[in-house]
Write a structure and sequence with these properties.
Blueprint: H1 10-31, H2 35-41, H3 46-74, H4 76-96, H5 100-128, H6 134-163, H7 166-185, H8 204-210, H9 212-242, H10 247-262, H11 265-275, H12 278-294, H13 301-317, H14 321-329, H15 335-363, H16 366-387
Helix pairs in contact: 1-6, 1-7, 2-3, 3-4, 3-5, 3-9, 3-15, 4-5, 4-7, 5-6, 5-14, 5-15, 6-7, 6-10, 6-11, 6-14, 9-10, 9-13, 9-15, 9-16, 10-13, 12-13, 12-16, 15-16
């Protein structure tokens, strides 16, 4: 394998970067649509179940900044190995939870592990891949996650058909264990990270203050992107449950959304590398908004599948978007720390989206929550159009 950013290709990244991440994401994909069902099975209302899913995002919030600091100190691989070590007891906790609070605690820990994985892979690819290949490398990483989202629910559905709801968690535990083995056996990925001058590492908060203008402009748009992406994991199962669909059918609908999603990851990266980031960002957010707007019209499996396919289309077109924009604006000094903060912006949306759905559902209705997220999609499209390429955000349409 090449050892410099100039020499690396997507093929070089396949085994050491994408394979372990793909297996890990199959596991998380298997449990994503059943966390809501686990919560309602323990007696939670739809609003409380949405809040439990939101704890996944809150765990990611809690894990993002420490992950960035740890990566700067120890490197990516030790952080990911630690994350897999924590993910196994988290999944076991989800499986054995006898109450909603215990389930929520396990889901929160699972979110912390996901944040560590995400920041570690992002930091490596930002430094290892040359700029003209960056969006394709990042969208491929996003595509690996989408493949997991596609394959995981189908594996989970098969296991649930055989042994019930716990089957999805057993599939996830097996995948996490395999990803840990791959991390240990595969050769470490090379990078050209320069040492900090004098051995000093800037603190996370110092890096955030230095780049506050970027974070409060483009970062706000990224927050909304995270909210719209996380919404799918909550609102589709809730709407399906409201329609009276069984868990296996819900997993299949969720898998359909993932199938549409994963088909677009490489075209999305190619579009961003060739034409600029806006060309994918703005249409993707508009599509995600539209998919939420049509959800209240879904009165059965067919309508839910149409809304899910639209969500997959918008989500697929945005594959690698957050990663690419973060890499574009990240500084050479304190990069891992900055990317931890950048991940925090996205994860504020990941945690806030389901919580917003839960709050609006409790106060008004699930249909009103869907329309609220539709408005968020339009706002995200407008903000990204405004700030991608704007000098104030420090980002150009191409890099």
């Amino acid at each position: 394998m090449a050892s410099t950013a100039e020499g690396l290709t997507l093929r070089d990244l396949g085994a050491p970067v994408y394979l372990p991440a793909g297996v890990f994401c199959v596991g998380t994909g298997a449990v994503a649509p059943v966390i809501v069902l686990s919560a309602t099975g323990l007696g939670a209302s739809p609003a409380v179940a949405a809040a439990v899913v939101g704890l996944l995002g809150l765990g990611q919030l809690a894990g993002a900044l420490p992950a960035g600091a740890l990566i700067a100190r120890t490197g990516e691989q030790p952080v990911m190995l630690g994350a897999t070590g924590l993910a196994l007891p988290a999944l076991l906790g989800c499986l054995l939870a006898g109450s909603v609070p215990l389930l929520g605690a396990a889901v929160f820990l699972l979110g912390v592990c996901g944040a560590a994985w995400g920041v570690a892979r992002h930091a490596y690819l930002t430094e290892a891949v040359r700029p003209d290949l960056r969006a394709r490398a990042m969208s491929t990483l996003g595509g690996v996650s989408r493949i997991g989202t596609f394959a995981g629910p189908f594996l989970g559905a098969a296991a649930m058909h055989a042994i019930g709801l716990r089957g999805a968690y057993l599939v996830a535990m097996a995948c996490v264990a395999v990803s840990a083995v791959l991390l240990r056996l595969l050769p470490p990925v090379p990078h050209d990270r320069p040492p900090a001058p004098g051995g000093d590492r800037p603190g996370v908060f110092a890096v955030a203050r230095a780049h506050a203008r970027t974070l409060r402009t483009l970062g706000l748009g990224i927050l909304l992107v995270g909210a719209l992406r996380a919404s799918r994991q909550t609102i589709l199962p809730l709407w399906g449950a409201q329609l009276g669909l069984d868990p296996a059918t819900l997993s299949l609908v969720y898998g359909l959304s993932g199938a549409v999603d994963m088909l677009l990851f490489y075209p999305a990266g190619r579009l961003m590398d060739r034409r600029g980031r806006r060309w994918a960002a703005v249409p993707a957010m508009a599509l995600l908004g539209a998919s939420h707007a049509v959800l209240p019209l879904a009165g059965g499996v067919t309508g839910l599948a149409v809304a899910a396919a639209l969500m997959g289309l918008g989500n697929g077109l945005s594959a690698g978007l957050i990663l690419t924009l973060g890499a574009d604006v990240s500084p050479a000094a304190g990069r891992a720390q900055f990317l931890g903060v950048w991940r925090l912006c996205a994860d504020l949306g990941n945690g806030g989206g389901p919580l917003l759905i839960g709050a609006v559902t409790a106060a008004v209705s699930l249909a009103a929550a869907a329309l609220t997220m539709a408005a968020a999609g339009l706002l995200a499209a407008a903000l990204l159009h405004r700030w991608i390429g704007a000098p104030a955000a420090g980002l150009h349409q191409k890099s």
